[in-house]
């Protein structure tokens, strides 16, 4: 069986259907794993650059998965035929990039019951805020330890528009009772403390106080067990 990193294994565990689209594929490891394990009958792997897609082609050829895994050179959802796709994985990108891919006009069909698995490397708070404000619900979220600790989200479109607090945008639906969640949020707080210090040093005291207040709100969520 093809070896997957803990991060991609976690993404694989969130797949619920039998036809997956992997946008920005990681050497096609994930889609090949899913079809070889029998979890999916078919997969599409895409990338915006030719180099990574050549690596994906080599993986598909090596594991003799060409009958089940299709490769497309494209940007996001462009040129992807949506018929039959049950799951979409967008992993290993910044939260802002993932947001822009889902917000594109060519991605409107994911609002018809598709299971989204999203794994932002950075700016998860930006992604969570946009999802809530655009009718997407995070139904499940966890933290996985890889080279660092990363969050993985399972998302579906419900049409319900929500406004979430800044603290919730940073903490998401993560379980604060879990050790990895606390490690993840500690890293978030470290970045916020650094931002607050920089703002203070540059004389932006009001902005620095707002960041400190956000840190306090995150601490309060941890103490209360979050809002799950």
Overall description:
The protein is elongated, with a radius of gyration of 19 Å. The chain has two domains: 6-164, Vaccinia Virus protein VP39 (Rossmann fold, 3-Layer(aba) Sandwich), CATH 3.40.50.150; 179-224, no CATH class. It starts with 5 loop residues before the first helix and ends with a helix. A seven-stranded mixed β-sheet has the order 3-2-1-4-5-7-6, with helices on both faces. Strand 4, helix 4 and strand 5 form a beta-alpha-beta unit. It has helices at 6-13, 29-36, 50-62, 95-103, 124-133, 166-171, 179-201, 205-224; strands spanning 19-23, 42-47, 69-73, 87-94, 115-122, 136-145, 149-157. The protein has 228 residues and is an alpha/beta fold.
Secondary-structure element pattern, one letter each: HEHEHEEHEHEEHHH
Helix content: 40-55%
Give the distance, in angstroms, between the N- and C-terminal Cα atoms. 36 Å
What integer value in Å does the Rg equal? 19 Å
Q: Helix count, per DSSP?
A: 8
CATH class descriptor of the largest domain: Alpha Beta
**Mean pLDDT, rounded to whole units?**
94
Task: Please mark out the parts with pLDDT under 50 across 5 or more consecutive residues, or reply none.
Answer: none
CATH architecture of the largest domain: 3-Layer(aba) Sandwich
How much β-strand is present in the residues?
A: 15-25%
**Strand element count:** 7
The biggest beta sheet, please? 7 strands, mixed
CATH topology of the largest domain: Rossmann fold
Identify the strand order in the major beta sheet. Answer: 3-2-1-4-5-7-6
Report the principal-axis shape: elongated
Overall tally of domains = 2
Q: Please state the structural category.
A: alpha/beta
The CATH H-level homologous superfamily of the largest domain: Vaccinia Virus protein VP39
């Amino acid at each position: 069986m093809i070896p997957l990193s803990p991060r991609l294994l976690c993404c694989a565990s969130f797949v619920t259907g039998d036809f997956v689209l992997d946008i920005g594929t990681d050497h096609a490891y994930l889609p090949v794993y899913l079809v070889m394990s029998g979890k999916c009958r078919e997969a599409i792997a895409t990338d915006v650059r030719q180099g990574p897609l050549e690596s994906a082609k080599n993986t598909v050829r090596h594991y003799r998965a060409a009958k089940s895994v299709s490769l497309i050179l494209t940007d996001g959802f462009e040129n992807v035929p949506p018929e039959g796709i049950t799951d979409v994985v967008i992993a290993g990108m910044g939260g802002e990039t993932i947001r822009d891919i889902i917000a594109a006009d060519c991605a409107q069909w994911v609002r018809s019951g598709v299971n989204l698995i999203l794994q932002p490397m950075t700016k998860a708070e930006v992604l969570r805020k946009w999802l809530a404000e655009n009718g997407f619900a995070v139904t499940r979220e966890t933290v996985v330890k890889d080279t660092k600790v990363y969050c993985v989200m399972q998302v579906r479109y419900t049409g319900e528009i929500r406004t979430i607090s800044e603290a919730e945008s940073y903490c998401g639906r993560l379980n604060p009772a879990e050790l990895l969640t606390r490690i993840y949020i500690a890293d978030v707080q470290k970045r916020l403390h650094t931002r607050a210090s920089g703002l203070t040093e540059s004389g932006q005291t009001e902005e620095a106080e707002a960041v400190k207040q956000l840190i306090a709100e995150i601490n309060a969520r941890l103490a209360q067990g979050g809002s799950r």
